[in-house]
Specification:
This protein has helices at 15-31, 55-58, 65-71, 74-80, 94-102, 119-125, 127-132, 142-152, and strands at 38-43, 46-52, 85-90, 107-114, 135-138, 160-161. It has 165 residues and is an alpha/beta fold. Strand 3, helix 5 (94-102) and strand 4 form a beta-alpha-beta unit.
Amino acid sequence: MRTDLLAPQLEGMDLPRFMWEALHEAERAGLEGEFPIGAVLVIDGQIVSRGRAQHQRKQNQLMHAEMNALLDGGQALWERGRSAVLLTTMEPCPMCLGAAVMANVPHIIFASHDEVVHTREIVATNPYVRRHIQSYYGGVLENETRDLIARYRPDWLQYVMRGSA
């Protein structure tokens, strides 16, 4: 399975518009002294929840942007998760990928690739994950995300790569 393809049902979706909202959350995280990562959960063309990194504030390593968006998805995610799209400014780590799979979120769109997490390999090789993920697509507003990371965490740029491997 290629992990850089977009499911047909997302081809008409304005991905940059929603990614800008995730970038707004990432900016807020950076301003708060957190890792500049943000996420939004979209169902039926509407943002139903938002998340941003909150490791420092909550003193909890599990408070990733994607986790916070998924945890705040509420009834909409419970009832319509199979049509949800998780948009995040960084390629999800294995924990966040697993949470999206368990929440039945079939579409994951991210801005910046992360050469450290190897999540694309999990999507490509794990049959359980492959059954759940229909879209795993990166590079939406990647340059803008790199610029944001450079402002708040320039030491991270070595881990962020351009384009998919």
